[in-house]
Amino acid sequence: MIDACEAVATFIADRDAHDLGIDRMLLFAVVHAIEVIGEAAVNVSDETRCVTEAIPWSAIVSMRNRLVHGYFDIDTAIVWRTATAEVPQLLPQLRDLLET
Q1: Predicted local confidence at residue 36, as pLDDT
Q2: Which of 15, 24, 49, 69 is catalytic?
Q3: What is the DSSP string of 1-24?
Q4: Is the distance from CB of 39 to CB of 3 less than 8 angstroms?
Q5: How far apart are CA 99 and CA 72, in angstroms?
Q6: How far is CA 43 from the centre of its chain?
Q7: Catalytic annotation present for 32
Q8: What percentage of the chain carries pLDDT values higher than 70?
């Protein structure tokens, strides 16, 4: 999950929301990385989820499901918000979890 979060940051560096709408490769890369984050979240144990309630596990998995099952109906504004606001908030939480 950490690697995928870092990949999102790399992909969107020096980019803006408009780029996501016109650069198909960028969109595919960001969407795939978010899917990877969600797929990894599916496999997080219930025990870990209980001790990390600040991490929105179900929302992460739901985002993955929306992207995987509705690919031709992706809202780039939501993907951009996820990539620029939610993933950066998640990354330090995952790093803290890894250190415990």
Answers
A1: 98
A2: 69
A3: -HHHHHHHHHHHTT--HHHHHH-H
A4: no
A5: 38
A6: 15
A7: no
A8: 99
Per-residue 3-state assignment (H helix, E strand, C coil) for 25-64: HHHHHHHHHHHHHHHHHHCCCHHHHHHCCCCCHHHHHHHH
Look up tokens 């992706």; give the residue.
74
Full domain range(s) for residue 66 = 2-99
Gap between the Cα atoms of 48 and 38, Å rounded: 15
82 residue type, one letter: T
Determine which helix (DSSP H) or strand (DSSP E) holds 73, and give its type and residue range: none
Respond yes or no: is residue 69 known to be catalytic: yes
Q: What digits encode the pLDDT tens for the residues 49-80? A: 998 989 999 999 999 999 998 867 889 999 99
Catalytic: which of 64, 66, 81, 95? 64
Contacts for 40 with CB less than 8 Å, ≥ 6 apart = 1, 4
Domain count for the chain: 1
